[in-house]
């Protein structure tokens, strides 16, 4: 199969079109503006609807409406814009509507910088809106994975009637890489007989709603959602391990830092240092059982968590999974500064030296 050279953001948009995206609602913000720009030209050519909304708040509520009518709806933004969408995301999750949300992360807090960052981990995995809800969060580490995940995300969203978020740092969105457009396995999806389509032949009307005035009704609904999230955790948790079978020091990282860590791993192994990489592919559900079991292995002496955030956010999930079995060290930068191979090599050696 031939490879094609694509810019990350444009490949995201093309992948969504190939996945059958019907509607895109968005607003330009660096470093993801090429996504709506590409969609504005190409989605209408495939019979879809593109709307540049007046704000990010408007965009996510347009997604609510389109998803409620059974359309495959999508939005994308970067960190401050995703913050503005949080109330709408909570509404969409509460109403059990499928949609795809792409966050091309930049440094923060506030307006921060237009450079890549990973400071939105808490927001993505804990939910930045109100109430008890979850979004399934996929974290690619290169452009190929990003386009594959975007295409699969629409099916995952439809299967569980839930928002699916893809978080990629700004470097992935802005870089160009060769990719393959290969077939993505399709899932057997339930019919969208819940959608508000205006049909008059039904015995009852479909109502899309996230409001439950009676506390007992809201309690029941939240228990129903919790059961769905448990099914997602059981069926959709993903991770990758590289040379962890004999590793004494294990690096935990996702996104671009995980990709950099692979080069650090090669350098350390060449020096005789037994190092491995554990990469969560789903940030939620987090692969805590797999990481817990790895921490229990006698050959593992310590962990090194690497992120593009100042003091670590995934670090909390790593600690919860490891449960104190082994020491955990941290290496991180924020504001668009990338952890380097040399820094990872030095930090891994220092961490291992402490336990020997």
Please render the helix and strand layout as text:
Layout: E1 4-7, H1 8-18, E2 23-26, H2 34-42, E3 49-52, H3 56-68, E4 73-77, H4 79-84, H5 86-94, E5 99-105, H6 121-127, E6 136-138, H7 143-160, E7 163-169, H8 170-174, E8 176-179, H9 215-236, E9 239-242, E10 249-252, H10 255-270, E11 275-280, E12 282-284, H11 288-296, E13 302-307, H12 314-322, E14 328-332, H13 341-354
Helix pairs in contact: 1-2, 1-7, 3-5, 10-13, 11-12
Protein model, in words:
There is one protein chain. The protein is α/β, with parallel strands linked by helices and 356 residues long. The protein folds into two domains: 4-236, Rossmann fold; 240-354, Rossmann fold. It contains 13 helices and 14 strands. It has helices at 8-18, 34-42, 56-68, 79-84, 86-94, 121-127, 143-160, 170-174, 215-236, 255-270, 288-296, 314-322, 341-354, and strands at 4-7, 23-26, 49-52, 73-77, 99-105, 136-138, 163-169, 176-179, 239-242, 249-252, 275-280, 282-284, 302-307, 328-332. The strands form three sheets. Strands 3-2-4-5-7-6-12 form a seven-stranded mixed sheet, with helices on both faces. Helix 1 crosses helix 2 (34-42), helix 1 (8-18) runs parallel beside helix 7 (143-160) and helix 3 runs parallel beside helix 5 (86-94). The longest helix is centred in the middle third of the chain and has 22 residues, at 215-236. It is globular and about 70 Å long. The termini are far apart.
